User: Which sequence fits this backbone?
């Protein structure tokens, strides 16, 4: 499979995972706003994750578990690093970590980012595996 096709599959996996997340967790009429905000946060993390996805050319047995696990780890790691960066800029750790009261809390935010990364990479591995089965 060509490199461009694999990048396109990875990006479509990101869009699909964020769309599912937005519809399920967004307010009834406001899922589009949740989609836009989530894409603004998930796209830079996807760019960090993309070289890892491109390293795995085929969806073999162990890689089917490793790639989604990496996706589940990279999102929360980026959030913790971003909070650390804000603290280094002079922010108060307690205010940054606890948020402004609108969000449910830091652990839920880490869980959401983990689920989006896990779903994105799992969809990528599933589509890659289906493509390999079809073209054997």
Assistant:
């Amino acid at each position: 499979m060509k490199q461009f096709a694999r990048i396109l599959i990875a990006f479509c996996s990101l869009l699909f995972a964020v769309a599912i997340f937005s519809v399920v967790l967004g307010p009834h009429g406001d899922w589009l706003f949740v989609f836009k905000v989530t894409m603004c946060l998930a796209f830079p993390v996807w760019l960090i994750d993309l070289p890892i996805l491109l390293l795995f050319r085929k969806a073999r047995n162990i890689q089917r578990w490793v790639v989604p696990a990496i996706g589940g780890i990279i999102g929360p790691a980026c959030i913790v690093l971003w909070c650390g960066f804000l603290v280094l800029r002079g922010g108060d750790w307690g205010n940054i970590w606890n948020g402004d009261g609108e969000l449910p809390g830091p652990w839920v935010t880490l869980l959401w980012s983990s689920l989006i990364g896990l779903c994105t990479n799992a969809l990528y591995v599933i589509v890659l595996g289906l493509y390999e089965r079809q073209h054997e």
Observations:
- Helices lie at 3-25, 31-55, 63-88, 93-98, 106-134.
- Residues 18 and 39 are 7 Å apart (CA to CA).
- The radius of gyration is 16 Å.
- The chain has a mean pLDDT of 82.
